[in-house]
Design goal:
Layout lengths: L1 H23 L4 H5 L4 H54 L6 E5 L2 E4 L2 E4 L3 E4 L4 E6 L3 E7 L5 E7 L5 H23 L1 H17 L2 H18 L2 H21 L6
Antiparallel strand pairs: 1-2, 2-3, 3-4, 5-6, 6-7
Length: 248
């Protein structure tokens, strides 16, 4: 059974090849296979190969430039994406990385979190310490005057550690004040950088011009014109001999 299946497959392959040969060299069995028509078949095959070679060469040249164009476009999109991200970060810097923590307090580059529910902007923030009998009391005042009371157990937090953390908050608040004062300038610079990135298509334009030039050259290629003329003549000769015009 397996031998029979292979035999059937072989017959199908042979039938396909014979059919294709008849299609490329029409006119019957003689023109397709007879030695009498061998010179005409050879001439037609050579003409087809020459034209195919020119077409393949042109395709490879265009494809290489198209790949470079795609690469240039992708690089441009990456520059624009990076500039957009920089603008978003300039407009909304967020909390920033963690600088330090003490008890329920978490100090970020731009904010101070009290527990899980409150996050205060650092700019204009001040902190005072009042030491009670059992607790250290931090009085946190926002720039708008809103006051927060944060008790820290003396059994869990040494006085020196509390003072060190308050100093850390004070210095971070001063740095953030400078940061916020320059925020508008950074946003403008990021917007300008985005506009420049969006408009900078120099590399794309150069490759696109090259692709256009190559396409024009291929359309006006004298060797391709000669190959087309030879194939046309070979096809016409085949028709004159066999009465059938072969496909290109």
């Amino acid at each position: 059974m397996e031998i029979l299946q292979w035999g059937v497959r072989a017959l199908i392959v042979v039938a396909v090849l014979v059919g294709r040969h008849h299609y490329r060299y029409p006119g019957g069995w003689g023109p397709a296979f007879s030695r009498t028509y061998a010179p005409e078949r050879r001439e037609l095959a050579q003409a087809r190969r020459r034209l195919t070679a020119r077409a393949v060469q042109a395709w490879f040249q265009r494809t290489a430039v198209q790949l470079r164009l795609s690469s240039a476009q992708a690089a441009h999109r990456r520059r624009v994406t990076a500039a957009e991200q920089a603008l978003r970060e300039a407009q909304n810097p967020g909390s920033g990385p963690v600088v330090g923590d003490l008890g329920t307090l978490i100090l970020h580059q731009h904010t101070l979190s009290i527990g899980e529910d409150e996050e205060l902007p650092l700019a204009g923030l001040t902190v005072r310490i009042h030491h009670g009998s059992k607790s250290h009391h931090l009085i946190v005042t926002e720039a708008d005057g809103h006051v927060h009371h944060v008790p820290l157990s003396q059994s869990e937090h040494e006085e020196n550690a509390v003072h060190a953390f308050v100093t850390l908050i004070t210095n971070a608040a001063r740095r953030d004040a400078v940061f916020q004062a320059c925020l508008e300038d950074r946003v403008k610079a990021a917007q300008a950088a985005l506009t420049e990135a969006e408009g900078d298509t120099t590399q794309e334009d150069a490759v696109r011009t090259e692709l256009h030039d190559i396409t024009q050259q291929h359309q006006l290629d004298p060797e391709q014109a000669v190959a087309l003329a030879r194939l046309k003549a070979a096809r016409q000769k085949w028709k004159d001999v066999t009465g059938r015009l072969p496909a290109r």
